[in-house]
Amino acid sequence: MTTRIALDGMVALVTGGGGMIGGAIARRMAEGGAHVALADREAPTPAAQGRAYAADLSDAAQLRALVDRVLADFGRIDCLVTAAGITSTGAFENITAEEWDRVHAINLRGVFLANQAVIAPMKAAGFGRIVNIGSVLAKNGGNPRPWLDAGEQARAGNAAYGAAKAGVHAMTLYLAKELAVHGITVNAVAPGPIASPMTTSFPAALVRQIPAGRMGNADEVAGMVAWLCSRENAFVTGEIIDVNGGLWMD
Ligand SMILES: NC(=O)c1ccc[n+]([C@@H]2O[C@H](COP(=O)([O-])OP(=O)(O)OC[C@H]3O[C@@H](n4cnc5c(N)ncnc54)[C@H](O)[C@@H]3O)[C@@H](O)[C@H]2O)c1
Q1: How many other CB atoms are found less than 10 A from the CB of residue 68?
Q2: Residue 200: which residues within 8 A CB-CB, separation 6 or more?
Q3: Residue 151 domain-assigned?
Q4: Distance, CA 57 to ligand 1 centroid (Å)?
Q5: How does residue 199 score in pLDDT terms, banded at 50, 70 and 90?
């Protein structure tokens, strides 16, 4: 059972809304009374929890057009949650420049573009909540233990993914400082391994490293995101909040 977090009347744009975590966030926010716009490569269906939009969120023009459409449809954007992303696995020495760019295009550039696109309307409203989805992999050097099992890296996130997420964390801090005076909070939630299509091949041996003894579920991320978006939270900003069952503590 989950607790209802009051978001009555707020307008939320959730990127990656067709995914496991983005979908859970959209549902949770809708349950709290928010009007939700879900954006993904293909419009998420059925958009029971809100209105669905299709866009390649690594493309600056499509992102701007999306934000304009949401503003036209809803009148404002109170909350932006960036959950669109892709994974990348394998050893550092095998990451090609093309793979590096593919991951950064959506996992970092896409987040930058989305954050930038909502600044003007949020400033004009004197209110905003931005929550970026980061990762424990930005902090811990990756989960695999090559000294025990060289094969784990093949099925777990790599340095291209971790570096992009570290960029998201850093960007969050910069933007939080710039926007605090405008009534806008900017935070990141850094999940550990969450059961989703992204982690179906996650090694069981690595799950046993998680102090909670299991992978997380998307609702556990969604609850934290919803609270960060709430009006109740006006003073938590510039935080990277871990949701990882104790896998990494800092
Ligand atoms: N699952 C985990 O264990 C985990 C852990 C830490 C962080 N994360 C992060 O959480 C977020 C959501 O992950 P998830 O597990 O729900 O994965 P998911 O694959 O279920 O969802 C990701 C969504 O992003 C969308 N997307 C990807 N590239 C896009 C693009 N260019 N334009 C538009 N949409 C695009 C996909 O279509 C997909 O629906 C990601 O940023 C991921 O990096 C996930």
Answers
A1: 12
A2: none
A3: yes
A4: 12
A5: confident
**Is 161 part of the annotated catalytic residue set?**
yes
Q: Decide: 86 in ligand 1 pocket, CB within 6 A.
A: yes
Distances in Å between the Cα of 34 and the Cα atoms of 43, 80, 104, 197, 215 are 19, 12, 30, 26, 28
CATH number of the domain within which 233 lies: 3.40.50.720
Atom of ligand 1 lying closest to residue 15 CA: 34
Q: Does residue 3 lie within any of the structural domains?
A: no
Number of domains in the chain: 1
Asked, for residue 193, whether it belongs to a domain, the answer is yes
Residue 193 Cβ < 6 Å to ligand 1: yes
Q: Is residue 55 part of a domain?
A: yes
Range of the domain at 192: 11-243
- pLDDT tens digits for 135-176? 999 999 999 999 999 999 999 999 999 999 999 999 999 999
Residue 128: φ, ψ to 5°: -175, 155
Reduced to 3 DSSP states, what percent helix, strand and coil does the chain have, rounded to the nearest 5? 45, 15, 40
pLDDT of residue 47 exceeding 80, the answer is no
Question: 117 alpha carbon to ligand 1 midpoint, in Å?
Answer: 20
